[in-house]
Predict the structure.
Amino acid sequence: ETGVTQTPRHLVMGMTNKKSLKCEQHLGHNAMYWYKQSAKKPLELMFVYNFKEQTENNSVPSRFSPECPNSSHLFLHLHTLQPEDSALYLCASSQGQISTDTQYFGPGTRLTVL
Amino acid sequence: QQPVQSPQAVILREGEDAVINCSSSKALYSVHWYRQKHGEAPVFLMILLKGGEQKGHEKISASFNEKKQQSSLYLTASQLSYSGTYFCGTRAGGTSYGKLTFGQGTILTVHP
């Protein structure tokens, strides 16, 4: 499945670094999502974009900054992260605004904060 | 409020059956089931809309009991490839699209 791609797949960064995660969807969808997946925890929704507009910010710390330049691309800019931010970050996309709206996930970026 | 899945883990031998439940305290519009293998993306299995519809996907099927706000995923004659973590994602009543809230996952292990 290559409908949703994410880069990089793995990232190790120090607490003072600045890095960005990239997500691209090739499904013609209008909505894109960032999730955080930590060990033994449910998927946590971070941000939702619908037609490039942010429609949800789930009380995410400001050290995470999303950007959605168009409906196909989504970025997550990271700065001054904490070790507890280490997790798998998943991007998803969906058609949006239909009764059977289904989210399709990318493979994720495994982030380690030292 | 996230849905609650049960059991937390299941161990099966090939050919055995399993049921995974997903319960919510909220009125639901839809329930979405996913399977995630280690190191891979969650893969969409099926969606159940309110109305008690039952759906099938080869030997994996699911039901949605609107009165109980509960969905059950049925895996019959399990195969090794069924191993993984199963998540339900729920969408609250009144919203047909957008935010999903996920359960904590059920780890399914199928042995030869």
User: Anything to note?
Assistant: Chain A touches chain B through 28 residues (CB under 8 Å). The first strand of chain A starts at residue 4 and ends at 7. The two ends of chain A are 31 Å apart (CA to CA). The mean pLDDT of chain A is 92.
